[in-house]
């Protein structure tokens, strides 16, 4: 049987998605805006298996079990319903980075899986349909279908179709992202459970959802006009507000470690020293820093020295998903 192969890059949100309007359809309650990053990639092979039996799923060299395997199988069922056939499949997925440590593994993984499995069953989907389908598995994966800077709108409960789309960036604004690794252990509470708990118990969740649309409009405008200062300000507010709301959940969600806090202070000091650098943090302790590409060396020199930063991955703007 021929093997279908797809490669997708991870993405990091400058305006965060945190909260669902419809958990069954996996629709976001807030709009998000991300940068696709070239340094973190997932490559997924899908081969149709003869006869019945089970899907064979291998993630980063190990047979997948439990929730990870279930999410893949459910997604293949979803794809099978569209294709009108549901053959069993052998899925092999390899990422260039640690899964589940707040490094957006589900984004690149589900974007690549959607594209490879669609090809394997003979579905010829355009970018919108691929993004909508990937979103149903993991909303951030909808954004990894595209390269560059990408927006995933919010949608009211019951919406049937929701895809991400690329957004324009000012020519001449050459951005990079430095990813500060402070831990590669899996997080104790995944994004999905974390955002569910936040929505159910945080007194700040409603305010978070209310303020997000205007913030996204500002970020989009800043990106289009090349105003890195404004983009960075929105980006840091989004991260801090998301985490403030999560910390106020019950029990409180604290994704940061000591190095996360040290790194945030160091980014602010770097800025005082004249380097335009801005942080964001996802559902894990690693810190991602947005800056001009030309400042990569200064960022590395300053932030590589922060106590608890194990290493730095430098990323540029990545491409959308590619089917080989
Ligand atoms: C903090 O896309 O992993 O990274 O839709 O439930 O799979 P599900 O959630 P997921 O959440 C990502 C949360 C985040 C912020 C972001 O990427 O926008």
Q: Evaluate the radius of gyration.
A: 19 Å
Q: What is the share of helical residues?
A: 25-40%
CATH architecture call of the largest domain? 2-Layer Sandwich
The rounded distance between the terminal residues' Cα atoms is 16 Å
Helix segment tally? 9
Compute the average pLDDT. Answer: 96
Main CATH class of the largest domain? Alpha Beta
Q: How would the global form be characterised?
A: globular
Helices and strands: which structural class?
A: alpha+beta
Low-confidence stretches: none
- Secondary-structure element sequence? EEEEEEHEHHHEEEHHHHEEHEE
Question: What key attributes describe this structure?
Answer:
binds ligand DP6, Alpha-Beta Plaits, 2 domains, 324 residues, four-stranded antiparallel beta sheet, Ribosomal Protein S5, domain 2, 9 helices, single chain, alpha+beta, eight-stranded mixed beta sheet
General description of the model:
- By secondary structure, this protein is an alpha+beta fold.
- The chain contains nine helices and 14 strands.
- The two termini are about 15 Å apart.
- Helix 2 crosses helix 3.
- The strands form three sheets. Strands 1, 4, 5, 6, 7, 8, 9 and 14 form an eight-stranded mixed sheet that branches.
- Helices cover about 40% and strands about 25% of the residues.
- The chain folds into two domains: about 5-170, Ribosomal Protein S5, domain 2 (2-Layer Sandwich); about 175-315, GHMP kinase, C-terminal domain (Alpha-Beta Plaits).
- It binds ligand DP6.
- The site of ligand DP6 has 14 residues, from helix 4 and helix 5.
């Amino acid at each position: 049987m021929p093997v279908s192969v797809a490669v997708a890059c991870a993405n990091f949100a400058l305006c965060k998605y945190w909260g669902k309007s419809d958990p069954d359809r996996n629709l976001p309650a807030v709009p998000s805006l991300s940068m696709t990053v070239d340094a973190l990639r997932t490559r997924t092979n899908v081969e149709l298996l003869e006869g019945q039996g089970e899907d064979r799923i291998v993630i980063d060299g190990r047979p997948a079990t439990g929730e990870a395997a279930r999410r893949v199988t459910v997604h293949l069922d979803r794809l099978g319903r569209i294709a009108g056939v549901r053959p069993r499949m052998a899925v092999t997925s390899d990422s260039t980075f640690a899964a589940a440590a707040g490094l957006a593994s589900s984004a690149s993984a589900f974007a690549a899986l959607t594209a490879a499995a669609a090809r394997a069953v003979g579905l010829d989907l355009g970018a919108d349909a691929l993004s909508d389908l990937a979103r149903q598995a993991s909303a951030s994966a909808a954004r990894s279908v595209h390269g560059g800077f990408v927006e995933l709108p919010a949608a009211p409960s019951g919406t049937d179709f929701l895809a991400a789309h690329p957004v324009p960036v000012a020519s001449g604004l050459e951005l990079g992202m430095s990813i500060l690794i402070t831990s590669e252990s899996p997080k104790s509470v995944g994004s999905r459970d974390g955002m569910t708990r936040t929505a159910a118990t945080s007194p700040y969740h409603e305010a978070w959802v209310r303020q997000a649309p205007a913030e996204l409009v500002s970020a989009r405008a800043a990106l289009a006009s090349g105003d890195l200062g404004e983009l960075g300000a929105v980006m840091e507010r989004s991260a801090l507000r998301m985490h403030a709301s999560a910390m106020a959940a019950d029990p409180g969600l604290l994704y940061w470690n000591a190095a996360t806090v040290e790194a945030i202070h160091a980014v602010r000091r770097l800025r005082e020293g004249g380097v335009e650098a801005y942080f964001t943090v996802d559902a894990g302790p690693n810190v991602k820093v947005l800056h001009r590409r030309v400042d990569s060396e200064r960022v590395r020199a300053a932030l590589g020295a922060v106590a608890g930063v194990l290493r730095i991955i430098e990323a540029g703007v990545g491409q959308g998903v590619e089917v080989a």
